[in-house]
């Protein structure tokens, strides 16, 4: 199989329903989702012991869902009979996972610095790349019809990565470092 097509040599790429510039906001949105997916793969590769079996499977499911999300954002226009893949149930499931993770974590009152264990550090990168993907999707949504559930999913997913990064540190016996100039911003 030949993987190069040469069709993008002039700065254009195919999306579902046509062609756009490689720097189009649509390509930026789903390209950032692809970048996030790569960092998730890196995080999964750091989960070598069985104390992360539960979240390793969650992350695998999320990787598949991010392909769905990217597909939804790649539609120039949803054709007749077309159907978006990201649903509200996906965000609700993330909320359940977040609640389970948060139950393991110590109470949080102040902002924390990204870092801790190598796994937590990569999960914080996932969180920030996810936020960028969300921003790109919001920008796309201002100029084109998109699946609104994709934006909600990305928003909830970044919260999931925050909770999971804290859980990775908790399971490793590492205390999150509070930002020293932070006021108390989180309350129960």
Secondary structure topology:
Blueprint: E1 12-15, E2 18-21, H1 25-45, H2 53-74, H3 88-104, H4 118-143, H5 148-171
Antiparallel strand pairs: 1-2
Helix pairs in contact: 1-2, 1-4, 3-5, 4-5
Description:
This is Corrinoid adenosyltransferase. Pathway: Cofactor biosynthesis; adenosylcobalamin biosynthesis; adenosylcobalamin from cob(II)yrinate a,c-diamide: step 2/7. Belongs to the Cob(I)alamin adenosyltransferase family. Strand 1 and strand 2 form a beta hairpin. The longest helix is centred in the last third of the chain and has 26 residues. Helix 1 runs antiparallel to helix 2, helix 1 runs antiparallel to helix 4 and helix 3 runs parallel beside helix 5. This protein has five helices and two strands, in the order E-E-H-H-H-H-H. The mean pLDDT is 94. The protein has one domain: Up-down Bundle (Hypothetical Protein Ta1238, Chain: A), CATH 1.20.1200. The chain is 59% helix and 4% strand. The protein is mostly helical. It is elongated, with a radius of gyration of 18 Å.
- Amount of beta strand: under 5%
Count of alpha/pi helices: 5
Fraction of residues in H or I helices: 55-70%
What is the count of distinct domains? 1
Secondary-structure arrangement, i.e. CATH architecture: Up-down Bundle
Features:
EC 2.5.1.17; 5 helices; nucleotide-binding; corrinoid adenosyltransferase activity; single chain; PduO-typ; Hypothetical Protein Ta1238, Chain: A; 188 residues; CblAdoTrfase-like; mainly alpha
